[in-house]
Amino acid sequence: MLKIENLSVHYGMIQAVRDVSFEVNQGEIVSLIGANGAGKTTILRTISGLNQPSQGTITFEGQPIQKKAPRKIVAQGISQVPEGRHVFSGLTVLENLEMGAYLRKDSDTQKDYDHIYEKFPILKERLSQDASTLSGGEQQMLAMGRALMSKPRLLLLDEPSMGLAPIFIKEIFNIIQEIQKQGTTVLLIEQNAKMALSIADRGYVLETGKIVLSGTGKELLESEEVKKAYLGG
Ligand code: ATP
Questions:
Q1: Which of 32, 79, 156, 182 has a Cα-to-Cα distance from 40 of 20 to 30 A?
Q2: Family, per the entry (predicted)?
Q3: Angstrom distance (rounded) from CA 233 to CA 228
């Protein structure tokens, strides 16, 4: 579904991503794990069209997307939930969800709102509340709900567990699995390697901009290298 080939990304003289290749098959949860600064966010932003690659190709459903504008990429079926959620403050919960549907061509959105209220009942209770006054976990749910309103076939999640209490992390990861079951493919970027690999069909380990290991979620969880470097021994 998504194929990244020989991708490199620079910020001026700094090379953040080095000749990275990987793929995401339809229906999978794929986790990309790595320490701070490994290049995870840069890869997601490049898929979304927010950063330009210096080399390589990104193919989505058979079409090259690496030169497309971000809104075209959303319209084609990829939606990103950014690190730190970035909900729109000054807008209500409902208005934030409406923004997610902004690029849709169909107007048949009611059942999608209903699905989101089913998944995130707390959002339904807070529809008229300013998004910036939600708790961190609630903002994460809103950011995910907003991304789902564009009806993506591929959902990109950037560190959904960041800054959340363990109970919220568990809930968010359950919801990610539910999203997969309902047919959306997921590419997940995480520092919380244990959670990310435990729900992943497959995973990749990124170190200083390069992929150094790959395997099924289970294989990586059991790998001595992963245990030592990312799971606390
Ligand atoms: P984190 O988990 O801390 O967000 P990450 O794996 O997502 O880390 P990136 O944010 O992709 O890593 O950063 C990769 C490298 O690129 C880092 O060395 C970072 O300092 C650098 N970098 C990221 N954004 C910029 C920028 N706008 N300008 C210059 N360098 C940048």
A1: 182
A2: Belongs to the ABC transporter superfamily.
A3: 4
List helix spans (H) across 120-165. Answer: 121-125, 136-148
Locate 210 and state its tokens: 């390069």
Q: Pick from 87, 104, 103, 83: which is nearest to 146 by CA?
A: 87
Q: Over the stretch 210-219, which tens digit does the pLDDT of each residue have?
A: 999 999 999 9
Q: Domains (ranges, CATH) in the chain?
A: 2-88+146-231 (3.40.50.300)
Residues of the chain with pLDDT under 70: 233
- Which DSSP category does 87 fall into? -
Write the single-letter amino acid at 19: D
Please tell me the predicted confidence (pLDDT) of residue 48.
97
- Rounded to whole angstroms, the Cα distance separating 136 from 42 reads 23
| Cα dist from 133 to 89, 126, 182, whole Å | 8, 10, 30
pTM over 0.80: yes
**CA-158 nearest atom, ligand 1:** 7
Nearest CA to ligand 1 atom 17: 37
Q: How far is the CA of 102 from the centre of ligand 1 (A)?
A: 29
76-126 confidence digits (pLDDT tens): 999 999 888 789 999 999 999 999 888 777 878 898 999 999 989 999 999
* CA separation for the pair 116, 152 (Å, rounded): 13
d(C-alpha 133, C-alpha 135), whole Å: 7
